[in-house]
Design brief:
There is one protein chain. The protein is of the alpha+beta class. It has one domain. Helix content is about 25%, strand content about 30%. The strands form 2 sheets. It has a 5-stranded mixed beta sheet with strand order 2-4-5-6-7. A two-stranded antiparallel ribbon has the order 1-3.
């Protein structure tokens, strides 16, 4: 299956983990995330498993310098994952890892995906 980053953004299915939004140095808050993801609206990636949500667990937006975001991809929706967390049930393992980079020495944006084993 081919996925477009913009589709996740429009659907609101990318979540920024609260811990990176509040960190002292280079917080990756919603404003930083919005600026960062604006570089990826035309980007897509192929992945063999259904992806319904992405949780960004690390990121740094300092464009035009090197900026990045790393997240886990899940087959569950954000609502399904939130429901499991609220019930203190075990969160399923992610199906993949998404790594996005831009700026710095990169002339183009980079999108990499890994399957989680």
């Amino acid at each position: 299956m081919t996925y477009k980053i913009v589709d996740f953004l429009k659907a609101g299915t990318i979540v920024i983990h609260p811990s990176i939004q509040r960190r002292a140095q280079y917080p990756f808050d919603m404003a930083a995330a919005k600026r960062f993801f604006s570089h990826f609206v035309e980007e897509s990636f192929a992945f063999g498993t259904v992806i319904k949500s992405i949780t960004i667990f690390d990121g740094k937006e300092v464009f035009p310098r090197h900026s990045y975001a790393v997240g886990f991809m899940y087959s569950q929706t954000i609502e399904e994952l939130d429901g499991l967390e609220q019930r203190h049930d075990k969160i399923p393992q992610p199906v993949g890892k998404l790594h996005l980079e831009c700026g710095g020495t990169h002339e183009r944006v980079l999108v990499r995906v890994e399957t989680m084993a």
